[in-house]
Write a structure and sequence with these properties.
7 helices, 203 residues, mainly alpha
Length: 203
């Protein structure tokens, strides 16, 4: 919902960071890989109930996710394998962190599993909608160019909201399942928005 606004605000600082990282040994794919490893570490830490460590790893993982794109653009890298790796890594991190929180919260706070399953279902539908749109829009010449490698349809739940919610349930694991119920509903609404918007855009 606020990703476009945040991108405008963060473009300058992220470009400065990308300039500082612009060394031969540092590539966009390696930054993506680092973000993936950190995200998986966050999921593992959450499952083991090391909540503050999980939060720190999660935040650094998402910072890395925000830096691979600016570095790729700085090097005029054509979107392709790197963009594919980036979105795949995002989905892996989002899914595993949900599972990690579910494991840790159920073990430490007797939280039920079903709210986290609802989140995963909502993520599945949401991801299907925007990835299918991006693929078909590319073939039909109706892409949305906002500087990213895929055509993203806006919605109520986007990257910034996902980062905030995942951070929140790592900060408050005792009520993480209640947060998950609300978040699943928000992502479900966003999925509906993307399905309708995508269908109209391709009609």
């Amino acid at each position: 919902m606020i990703d476009a606004y945040l991108r405008r605000r963060l473009d300058g600082p992220l470009d400065l960071c990308a300039r500082a990282l612009d060394r031969p040994a540092i590539t966009p794919d390696r930054i993506t890989g680092a973000g993936l490893v950190l995200g998986l570490g966050s999921a593992l830490a959450a499952g083991l109930q090391f909540w503050l460590l999980a939060l720190a790893l999660w935040i650094v993982s998402r910072i890395a996710d925000g830096l691979d794109g600016p570095l790729a653009r700085r090097r005029a890298t054509i979107a392709g394998a790197g963009g594919f790796f980036d979105i795949t890594a995002d989905f892996v991190v989002y899914g595993t962190t949900v599972v990690g929180v579910a494991v840790g919260a159920s073990a430490g706070y007797d939280a039920p599993w079903w709210p986290f399953l609802l989140v995963l279902l909502a993520y599945y539908i949401n991801g299907t909608a925007f990835l299918a749109f991006s693929s078909i829009a590319e073939r039909n010449g109706r892409t949305i160019d906002d500087g990213r490698s895929l055509s993203f349809l806006g919605g109520l739940a986007e990257g910034a909201e996902t980062i905030a919610v995942h951070s929140l349930w790592l900060l408050l694991p005792g009520i993480s399942w209640q947060i998950a119920v609300v978040w699943a509903a928000v992502v479900a609404v966003s999925s509906g928005q993307r399905i309708i918007a995508g269908y109209r855009a391709l009609s």
